[in-house]
Design a protein that fits this description.
Elements: H1 4-15, E1 20-26, E2 29-34, H2 38-48, E3 54-63, H3 66-71, E4 83-90, H4 100-110, E5 114-115, E6 122-128, E7 131-140, H5 144-147, H6 164-173, E8 181-184, H7 191-196, E9 202-207, H8 210-222, E10 228-231, H9 237-240, E11 245-251, H10 265-279, E12 280-290, H11 296-299, E13 304-314, E14 317-325
Parallel strand pairs: 4-5, 4-6, 8-9, 8-11, 9-10, 11-12
Antiparallel strand pairs: 1-2, 3-7, 6-7, 12-14, 13-14
Length: 327
């Protein structure tokens, strides 16, 4: 999705009350000034972000033209005694009108410092979008971390489940903070709860189907994750939750393959959003997945719609991930 990865980053910073200023942004790139140390930032974001590939120290951005890129080389400060290497790439095959290899060679020659292509101390990165972004590589995300909790790795699974990376993005968009309480009242196999554990949240899950509750408990035990899970109709969830929760993150039943226990789907959605409004704290967010666009307005009867992220799953299915806020 063109905006979800960007918004996930900002939501994670807001979840921890980290001040930031947007310096520049373009296709797949976001440059921020952040008031937190590098080590602390990496430690925090490496546990949470699901749609980001790299974290770099930002040197500069400029027009995607060779002379301009090279002309900004003095902004790249290589510490004395350190050696560097330049890695460059284009997004979406842009800027074929000039040689990337020649640009890298000229930029390397303009940087004050010694280059070492095989064992560098510093990786300087040149990324070409509609413009050029130059930085120092700090951290590369291990994408396989999420696959370790995929459906094929769980002792209990059903055919329709969110990918762990999407589940984590939903958790992050809720701006849940460490030690706060997150509720998934349609927990299914527990995928959202498993990812919310990475955020350090207190976890509550419910489902009307006892088989799903048993399966969620098995999955949580398998991954050594603590949570409170219980069987309940969505309308009765507030009776089991002692205090308002900080965030609700859930994937609503589709009405076809998903079990609704013979409840009419639109009535079920209405009942669900009424429960969200009762259970959620003031200012808290509900991040909700659904499969039909016209159902989004049901939630607006009870909560303020902040943003919708349409995500095309395949040719005949688009999922809508909606962020609602309780006023």
């Amino acid at each position: 999705h063109p905006e979800m990865p960007r918004d996930e980053v900002l939501a994670c910073l807001e979840a921890r009350s980290i001040s930031y200023k947007i310096l520049d942004e373009d296709d797949k790139m976001l440059a921020l000034e952040i008031e937190i140390g590098e080590g602390e930032l990496v430690s925090y974001l490496s546990r949470r972000l699901s749609m980001t590939f790299f974290i770099d120290e930002f040197y500069y951005s400029c027009e995607a033209a060779k002379d301009v890129i090279v002309g900004n080389a003095p902004k790249i400060q290589i510490p004395t005694g350190k050696k560097f290497r330049i890695t460059a790439y284009r997004t979406r095959s842009r800027h074929k009108h000039f040689s990337l290899t020649q640009t890298v060679n000229e930029l390397g020659a303009a940087i004050k410092g010694a280059a070492n292509l095989s064992k560098p101390d510093i990786d300087v990165v040149l990324a070409l979008t509609n413009k050029a972004f130059v930085g120092r590589r700090i951290y590369e995300f291990i994408r396989g971390d999420f696959d370790a909790r995929g459906m094929d790795k769980r002792p209990f699974s059903v055919p329709i489940s969110l990918h762990p990376r999407i589940a984590m993005a939903m958790v992050n968009l809720s701006r849940i903070g460490e030690g706060q309480t997150l509720l998934d009242p349609f927990c299914g196999t527990g995928g959202i709860l498993m990812e919310a554990h990475r955020a350090g949240a207190k976890l509550i899950g419910s489902d009307i189907d006892p088989r799903m509750i048993e399966g969620t408990a098995r999955n949580l035990r398998h991954f050594k994750i603590g949570a409170t899970v219980f069987q309940s109709d969505i309308a009765d969830v507030p009776e089991h939750v002692a205090a308002p929760v900080d965030a609700i993150v859930t994937d609503l039943p589709y009405g076809r393959a998903s079990s609704t226990h013979k409840q009419e789907i639109l009535a079920l959605y209405d009942k669900a959003f009424a429960t969200f409004a009762k259970t959620l704290k003031s200012g808290g967010r509900a991040v909700v997945g659904m499969s039909e666009e016209d159902r989004i307005k049901i939630g607006e009867k009870y909560l303020k719609l902040e943003k919708v992220y349409p995500v095309r799953v395949h040719k005949s299915l688009t999922r809508y991930f909606c962020v609602y806020v309780k006023g």
